[in-house]
Write a structure and sequence with these properties.
This protein is of the alpha+beta class. It has a single domain, classed as GMP Synthetase, Chain A, domain 3, CATH 3.30.300. It is built from 4 helices and 3 strands, in the order H-H-H-E-E-H-E. It has a 3-stranded mixed β-sheet with strand order 1-2-3. Helix 1 crosses helix 2. It is elongated and about 65 Å long. The protein starts with 10 loop residues before the first helix and ends in a 5-residue tail after the last strand.
Length: 103
């Protein structure tokens, strides 16, 4: 028994054909674009540990591994928001969340 073969889809084609996956792809791209804008403003020690969360219409969440990183990041929020606004990303607020480590 033989099955008709279908041409293989690329990941981008599959994502574009599924509305939910397409929306997730858009959100990931937006979050990555926002992170690229703020990355140069972060101290070198934070650049590798700050992870972007899902972007929302008026806010964005940044994820960090510990409270010390969160405290430093919170000090930088006004500058980060200004950079995002200047780049055309109207973010009203940035939330900072500490990732819980598995016990």
């Amino acid at each position: 028994m033989t099955f008709p073969s279908k041409p293989a889809l690329s990941l981008q084609q599959a994502v574009s054909q599924a509305p939910l996956l397409a929306r997730l792809g858009e959100m990931a791209a937006e979050s990555g674009a926002r992170l690229a804008i703020i990355q140069p403003l972060l101290p070198p020690a934070l650049r590798g540990v700050v992870k972007p969360g899902a972007p929302e219409a008026d806010s964005w969440t940044l994820l960090v591994p510990h409270a010390a990183a969160a405290a430093k990041l919170r000090q930088l929020l006004p500058n980060l928001l200004s950079a995002l606004h200047a780049a055309g990303h109207p973010v009203g607020a940035i939330r900072v969340k500490v990732l819980k480590t598995p016990s």
